[in-house]
Specification:
alpha+beta; 7 helices; 24% helix; binds pyridoxal-5'-phosphate
Length: 353
């Protein structure tokens, strides 16, 4: 694939790393690729970062035809920049595209676009501890008509944002409210796809939890409100009597790359891991009898986010004295070690730019 590059004539100053938040500052360029049902993918290009101009009837604005990905480029101590399991994000995005009737992308072209774009923006990858260059590929349906059908035109774009450390003030366990009204996704729906609509539907419960002093919600399944699914926009894991239990991928759960990587690390280290249905009653029992040893959310942004308190139907349970557990800390150290190139990558997960 021949990517046409138009350089930004007015590159911006790189931000002071101490001011970095999440997704507020963007790099000088963006990758764009257009698709039409007759032409297929065409005009791959890197252009100066700019606003988009879309028709007011564009499909995405009315029918939510949008998917995205999230991954990071990490600056190693030797100055090189690397990606973490990008092929997993590429495959997941194609799975999301299939669910939303958006076009498939050839894996090798997507990979080439990622690498060439990150190479061009390499200097935007910060080097302060915990910082990285967050990459946000996204795709949307862009027909200029209000008819409801699979789209004939789509745009694929990658933007990049230098982001600060998720844990500026150390890793503090969060308080989580178990949500028994709203659901995030249902089997047969779009739960396994990374699409904007899932987020739009999640916000109300998240806001309610925040009003009550909780960071996020723990989602239950959409049919019986019985089985645990995810925490906020992260996958969730529990250490119960020495075994790590995480909800199985049932169709309504997003198959996280962090989740998959943690399972691989745990299995390699000889831990017992169970991917299965976990009911909220079983969890409440484990909290009541003290066999719940640790609980954490996991995703690219935080890597792991320890859970220090869970509230279910007005009952409050404290997990591990509200402190980060030893295994949670170990998983954080192992994964961030591989991602930033401080720990040897025996899995072959990292891709140098
Ligand atoms: C992105 C996402 C995750 C985490 O996936 P990672 O690949 O580990 O970043 C988990 N749940 C939801 C709903 C997500 O959107």
């Amino acid at each position: 694939m021949d990517i046409k590059v138009t350089l930004n004539p007015n590159p911006a100053q790189k931000p002071d790393p101490s001011t970095l938040g999440f997704g507020k500052i963007f790099t000088d360029h963006m990758f764009m690729w257009s698709w039409n049902s007759e032409k297929g993918w065409y005009n791959p290009r890197i252009v100066p970062f700019q606003r988009l101009s879309i028709h007011p009837a564009s499909t995405v604005l009315h029918y939510g035809s949008e998917i995205f990905e999230g991954l990071k480029a990490y600056r190693r101590a030797d100055g090189k920049v690397q990606l973490f399991r990008p092929i997993e994000n590429i495959r997941r995005m194609n799975n999301s595209a299939e669910r939303l009737c958006l076009p498939q992308m050839p894996e090798e072209d997507f990979m080439q676009a990622l690498k060439e774009f990150v190479k061009l923006e390499e200097d935007w990858t910060p080097s302060a501890p915990g910082t990285s260059l967050y990459l946000r590929p996204f795709m949307f349906g862009n027909d200029e008509s209000l008819g409801v059908h699979a789209v004939h035109n789509a745009e694929f774009i990658i933007i990049a944002s230098p982001v600060g450390s998720y844990y500026k003030e150390g890793i503090n366990p969060v308080k989580i409210m178990i949500e028994d009204q709203d659901v995030r996704a249902v089997r047969g729906g779009t739960g396994y796809a990374k699409c904007g609509g899932n987020y739009a539907a999640s916000n109300r419960a998240g806001e309610r939890a925040e009003q009550q002093g909780y960071s996020q919600v723990l989602w239950l399944d959409g049919v019986e409100r019985k089985y645990i699914e995810e925490v906020g926009a992260m996958n969730v894991m529990f250490k119960i009597s020495g075994t790590v239990v995480t909800p199985m991928l049932s169709g309504s759960i997003l198959p996280g790359v962090t989740r998959k990587s943690i399972i691989d690390v745990l299995k390699k280290e000889g831990y017992k891991v169970e991917e299965r249905l976990l009911s909220v009653d079983e969890l409440a029992q484990a909290m009541a009898d003290g066999t719940l040893e640790e609980a954490w959310g996991c995703g690219t942004a935080a890597v792991v986010s320890p859970i220090g308190e869970l509230c279910y139907k007005e009952h409050k349970y404290i997990v591990n004295n509200g402190e980060i557990g030893a295994l949670t800390q170990h998983l954080y150290d192992t994964l961030t070690g591989i991602q930033w190139g401080k720990v040897e990558d025996t899995f072959g997960w990292t891709v140098e730019i």
